[in-house]
C-alpha cells in the first residue's frame, strides 16, 4: 500500500469505526447476520453451515478445543458483556443509577420486566420439567437492537425515554448475568476460580497506576485472556469474566481508561463479536411449513413469544405505573404514558442474551440434545421482530406527535 493510499484509507477506517459505535449500525449488522444465518441454514448448502459452526479449534490441553459456535458464545460475547459491565459501572457512579430517586423507576421496571415474563413462561410450561429449563430465556432485553429501533424512529422523542430504556436494559443485563452465573454454569472448580483472581487483580492494578498511563493493550489483553480462560475452566460461564474485568476498571468523570477501552472495543463488539454470535446462534433449520408448525405447537416457543411480547411490556409498564402511584415518584414531565407503552414493547426484543440462554438451557439446540432448542430460537427471532415492529409503530406515532409540538413552539 502506498503512503497516499494509506492516507486515503485512514479517514475511511475512522468513518467506519465511528459508524459502528452507534446503536443503529450495530442493530442493522445484527439483523443482517441473523438473516444470512437463517437463509444459509435453510438452503441446499445447510450442511456447510453446520460444518462451519461445529468446526473445532483451540488447545485441547486447556479444554479449549471448542466449536466456532461455542467460541462465539463464550469468547466473543465476553467482549459484549465487558462493555455492558462498563456501562453498568458508569451508570452506578455517574449516571442515572447514582441517584436512587431517579434510578428507582427504571430499576424496578427492569425487575418487573424479568419477573413477569419468567412467570408467564412457567405458567405456560407448568408440569413439564424438561421445558421449564428455559424459564430465563425471555427475561433479557437486547440493548443494541432496542436502542437501534428507538434511534431510527425517535428523532423527536424526549431524551428521557432513551435514558429510561438504557438504564432498564443495563440493569436487565446485570440480572441476566447473575442468572447465567447462578443457574447455567457447570460444576464449580474452585481452584480455577481462585486462580482467575490473580490476573484479574493485575488487570485492576495496571489500570490504576498513574491513572492508567501504563495500561497498554498488549499488557491488558493477555491478563484479560488469562482471566477468561480460568473463569471458563472454573465452570462459571465465561462471559461473566467480561463483567468481572469491567468492574475493576477505574471510572473517573474525565476521559480515562474506561472511556479509552469502550472507544476502542465498541466497534469490534458491534461490528464483529455480536454479529458473529448471532450468525452462529440463529442458523436454525425451519423445516418448511411442517417445521414452523412443530415449533408453534411447542410450549417452549409459545411461552417465549407470550413472555417477550406480552410479559415484558406488562411487567415494565405495570411496574412503572404502580410505582408512580407512590408519593414523590414520577416520570419525567415531558414523557407520556403512550411514550412509555412504546418503550415497554421494545423491551420484548430479547435476541442476543435470549439466544445465549436458549443454548445454555437446551444443550445448544442444534438437534443433538433437544428439539426445544431450535424451537426456542425460532420463537426468540419471531417474538423479537414482532416486539420491535409493535414498538416502532407506537413510537413512530408518538414521534410525529412530539415533532408537531416542537414545530408549534
UniProtKB/TrEMBL annotation:
<feature type="transmembrane region" description="Helical">
    <location>
        <begin position="190"/>
        <end position="207"/>
    </location>
</feature>
<keyword id="KW-1133">Transmembrane helix</keyword>
<dbReference type="InterPro" id="IPR023171">
    <property type="entry name" value="Na/H_antiporter_dom_sf"/>
</dbReference>
<comment type="function">
    <text>Na(+)/H(+) antiporter that extrudes sodium in exchange for external protons.</text>
</comment>
<dbReference type="InterPro" id="IPR004670">
    <property type="entry name" value="NhaA"/>
</dbReference>
<feature type="transmembrane region" description="Helical">
    <location>
        <begin position="20"/>
        <end position="41"/>
    </location>
</feature>
<keyword id="KW-0472">Membrane</keyword>
<feature type="transmembrane region" description="Helical">
    <location>
        <begin position="103"/>
        <end position="123"/>
    </location>
</feature>
<feature type="transmembrane region" description="Helical">
    <location>
        <begin position="214"/>
        <end position="231"/>
    </location>
</feature>
<keyword id="KW-0813">Transport</keyword>
<feature type="transmembrane region" description="Helical">
    <location>
        <begin position="335"/>
        <end position="358"/>
    </location>
</feature>
<comment type="similarity">
    <text>Belongs to the NhaA Na(+)/H(+) (TC 2.A.33) antiporter family.</text>
</comment>
<feature type="transmembrane region" description="Helical">
    <location>
        <begin position="237"/>
        <end position="256"/>
    </location>
</feature>
<keyword id="KW-0406">Ion transport</keyword>
<feature type="transmembrane region" description="Helical">
    <location>
        <begin position="268"/>
        <end position="289"/>
    </location>
</feature>
<keyword id="KW-0739">Sodium transport</keyword>
<keyword id="KW-0050">Antiport</keyword>
<feature type="transmembrane region" description="Helical">
    <location>
        <begin position="61"/>
        <end position="83"/>
    </location>
</feature>
<dbReference type="Pfam" id="PF06965">
    <property type="entry name" value="Na_H_antiport_1"/>
</dbReference>
<feature type="transmembrane region" description="Helical">
    <location>
        <begin position="135"/>
        <end position="157"/>
    </location>
</feature>
<keyword id="KW-1003">Cell membrane</keyword>
<feature type="transmembrane region" description="Helical">
    <location>
        <begin position="378"/>
        <end position="395"/>
    </location>
</feature>
<protein>
    <recommendedName>
        <fullName>Na(+)/H(+) antiporter NhaA</fullName>
    </recommendedName>
</protein>
<keyword id="KW-0812">Transmembrane</keyword>
<feature type="transmembrane region" description="Helical">
    <location>
        <begin position="301"/>
        <end position="323"/>
    </location>
</feature>
<feature type="transmembrane region" description="Helical">
    <location>
        <begin position="164"/>
        <end position="184"/>
    </location>
</feature>
<keyword id="KW-0915">Sodium</keyword>
